[in-house]
Amino acid sequence: MLQIIKNEWRFLIRSRIFLGISIAFISILLVSVFLGNYQTRKQEQTHKSAKDHVRQQWVSIDEMNPHSAAHYGTYVFKPTNLLNSLDEGVNSVTGNVLRVEGHVQNEIVHSEASQMQAISRFGKLKPSLLLQYIVPLLLIFLAFNSVSDEKQSGRLKLLVLQGAKPLQIILSKILSVWLYGMMLLTFVLSVYSILNFQSLTTDILTRTGLFFLSYTLYYFIISAITVYFSARWQNATLALTSMLGIWIIWTIFLPNILMSSAEKWHPLPSRNQFQSAMKEDRSKGLDGHNPKDKRAIALKEKVLKEYGVDSLSQLPINFDGMRMQADEEYGNSVWDKHFGNNRKILRKQKQSFQLGGIVNPFISLQNSSMGFMASDNLHHQEFLLQVENYRRFFIKTLNDKQTFGGSKTGNWRWKEDNAFFKSIPDFNYKPTQVSVILSNYLLDLALLILWSIIVIVIIYFGTKKIQIV
Amino acid sequence: MIQLQNVSKSFKGSLAIKNLNLEVQKGEILGLLGANGAGKSTTINMLLGFLNPDSGEVYINDIDTNHNSQETRKLIGYIPENVNLYPYLSGLENLDYFCKLAGLKYSKNELENYLTICGLENKAHVKKVSGYSKGMRQKVGIAIAYAKKAKVYLLDEPASGLDPLASNELSILLKKLASEGATILMASHDIFRVREVCNRIGILKNGVLVKELYSKDVSANELETLYLQFMQN
Fold this sequence. Notes:
The complex is a heterodimer. Chain A is an all-alpha fold. Helix content of chain A is 72%, strand content 3%. Chain A has a two-stranded antiparallel sheet with strand order 1-4. Chain A has a two-stranded antiparallel ribbon with strand order 2-3. Chain A is elongated, with a radius of gyration of 30 Å. Chain B is of the alpha/beta class. Chain B folds into two domains: 1-75 and 152-233, Rossmann fold (3-Layer(aba) Sandwich), CATH 3.40.50.300; 82-150.
C-alpha cells in the first residue's frame, strides 16, 4: 500500500497542473488565515477600546443616585475569541453590543452583517469557508478518475498481476487523496498556530484538535466515496457527476431543508408574539415606579410589619430601592420564563438539526466546526445568559445601595460617591469549558465516525464486485 | 506450462469460448491467431484469473487459476497490446515501482540491467515514459515480467502498431525468453510475425480452436492461405 501511496504523491508533485493548482490554493488559504487573524485581532482591539471607554465612563461618575445610575446603565460588548479567526460561525449575524440597564433586558445589536452588505451576502473569507466547501471539491477532482484511469489504461491488470489486491489499491488511492486534504488542513492550522503562538492555551489547542478531527473524518468520507465511485462506475465522468451531485446536495440543499424542517418542528414565537407575551406578563407584576400599584402597596405593608413601624418615614431603610428591586425580580422571572422557553426551543432545533448528520455528514462537520471554534449559537446563548446574570447583579447592587445605603424613602436627591461606582466590577465573560462543548457536539463527532465506518464497510464488500477487465 | 481443458465461456448468453483445449509446454511459444472477437483476449483473461470459465479447467504450471489466481499470477508476466505505464515516471522508475509491488527490491544497477536485457537503450532508462514510443513501452513491459522472473508470458497483440525494427526486436526477445525456459502464449493478428516467432500456432474462430499446427510445417504464405480459408468458411 505504501508503494501505491508514494506513487500517487509522485504524480501530485510532478504534475505541473496540479502543482500549480495546489500552490494557488495554498496561497488563497494563506491569505484567508492571515485575513481571519487580522480581522480577529482588530476586533479584539476594538472590543478592548470600546470596553475600556465604557468602563471609564462608568468609573468617572462623580456623584449620582444609585437608581438613576441603573437607568444610566452601561454597555457590554461580545468578546472575540481567537478561534473565531478559523470559523466565524454565527458571529457576524448575531450582533455584539448589549445595553445593560434597569427594568429592561435589551436585545443585542450591531451585527456586522447588518452593517456590511458583502458579509450579509457572502460571509467573511475565513479558512472554514475554504476548508468546508473548496477542499472537498479539490479532493473530488483529485479522486474521481483515480481508479477508472487505471482501469481504462489497463494498468489495473498489471497492478493486480504484480500482487496488489483491489482492496489495497482502492484504500491506497483513498489514503493518497485524503492525505492531500490533511496536508491543506495541517497547513492552515500550522500557520494559525505560528501566528498566534503566544496566545495558545490548552483550551485553544484542545478545541483546535477537535476541529482537526472533524475535518479529518469528513475528508476521509469524501475521498473514500469518490474513489469508490471511480472504481465501481464504468467511466470517470459518471463518478465525477455523481460526486458533484452529492456535494451540491450535502452543502447547499440539505442544510437548508433540514434547518427549515427543524424550525418547523420546533417553532420559535415570532418577535411580536414574544414581545407581547413578555409585556403582558410584565404588566401583571409590580411596577417599581408607581407607589400606588396594589402589589407595591402590599409589599409596603409587609415591610412595615417586618420592621414594626407604621410609616415609610419611620423605616431605617429606603423603601423605594426595595420596591425597585422587587420590580426587577419580577421582571427577571418573566424573562426567565420567556427567554428560557426560547432557549429550550433553540436547543431542540439544534438537536434536530444535529440528527441531520445521519443523512448528511456535512451538517456534522459544520456543527462541530462552529462549536469547537466557539462561534456557534450555543456559545452566543451562553454569552447572553452571562450578560443577563451580570445585569441582575449590577442592578441589584445599585438598588441595594439605594435601599440600605443610608437614604430615606422618597429622597431621590440622595447620591452615592465615585468610590461606590468604581467598586462595581465590570462584566467579565467566562468562556464555555471545552468539556461542555464536547458533550454538545459528541453526536456530530459520533456521526462522522459512523459515516467513516459505513463507508469502509461498503468499500470492503463492494470491492469484491469490481471487475478488473 | 499452460493448460486449458474443455473450457467454455459466455457473456450474456453469447458464447465466447467453446470447449477449448490447449497446452503450451515449457520453452514453447504458441501463437493464437484469430479475428477480432474470436476469443483470444477472453482466453488470456481466463489464464490471468480475471475471468472464470463457465466450465472446464485452466492451469498454470499445474495450478488451477480459478481457485488459486493469487498463486498463478505470481508466475505470469503479461504484456498487453498497449503497455500503459505511468507517464510521469521514467522507465527505470516504472520498473522499480512494479517490482516493489511484487515484493521485489532490486538495486538501480540490477533494474538497469533488466531494461538493457529487454532491449531498452541506456539513455532512455531515465527519460520520462511520456516520451517513449510504443515499442519502448513494450520493452519496459517485458522487463517488468522478466524482473518478476515470470515462468509464463501472456502477450495480447504485442506487435500491433510496432514498426518493423521494434517488431523484430520483440521477436528476438521472445525467442530468448523461450530459450531460457519460459512458456509463452501470444495472441495476434500478425500471421507473418506469429509464423516467425512461434513454435506452434492455433487458429481461433468464434471461440473454437479450428486448427492447430507447427510453424515449421507451413510457410508464411501457406499459413495466410489457411487462415483466410478458415475465416471465410
